[in-house]
Amino acid sequence: MARQLDLFFFIGSTYTYLTVSRVQDAASRESISIRWRPFSVRTIMAEQNNVPFRGKPVKMKYMWRDLERRARRHGVPFESIPHYPVDPDELANRVAVVASLDGWCPEYTIATYRAWFLENKVPGDLQYLPALLIQLGRDPEVTIGRANTQEIRDRYASETQVARELGIFGSPTFVSGSEIFWGDDRLEDAIDWCRSKPER
Predict the structure, then answer these.
(1) 38 is in which domain, residue-wise?
(2) Chain segment 121-178, per-residue pLDDT in tens
(3) Residue 36 in contact with residue 105, Cβ under 8 Å?
(4) CB of 149 within 8 A of CB of 142?
(5) 126: which residues sit within 8 A by CB, 6+ positions away?
(6) What's the number of domains the chain is made of?
(7) DSSP run (H or E) holding 180
(8) How far is it, in rounded angstroms, from Cα 85 to Cα 66?
(9) In sequence order, what DSSP letters do the residues of 118-144 get, joined into one string?
(10) For position 95, which CATH number holds?
């Protein structure tokens, strides 16, 4: 069995844009597969009373500048600061759950982030989501309808519970076995750790 690294992510996390833009290439160079696992980091952060940017303009200004610098470093496009925060109903993430179950989560997540960061098309907004799904060859009515079912809501909650039990508190987080690595700047550490484990 090939080595596998779990990527727990939340569409709406800003630094996750960097990760989804580069994780596939970084992992494939080391023959590591990525399992994409959307979860509600917003729920976990609320439970922990951890709201990093709301009401903190100085910290938020730094965050956007840091993102811009890191994007440049890794060759990730960064046009301007997009609308934030986004997706109050977390529809974009529930669609990601559907995509993860059906095998098109990387394509969907990357397209969603690129539309958000490069065109300011807000994730989960029904003004933009149907067209994005059509571009990916998916039926918007069927996909969004499924994302709103109790089955998918329960799956999303279940993945959030897994993240909670692992001790995850932010997005992106990489998981290899019981080891967690939080943040885009820990991507390389996570890959090194995963690579060092014997193949099973």
Answers:
(1) 3-196
(2) 999 999 999 999 999 999 999 999 999 999 999 999 999 999 999 999 999 999 999 9
(3) yes
(4) no
(5) 91, 144
(6) 1
(7) strand 179-182
(8) 17
(9) HH---TT-TTTHHHHHHHTT--HHHHH
(10) 3.40.30.10
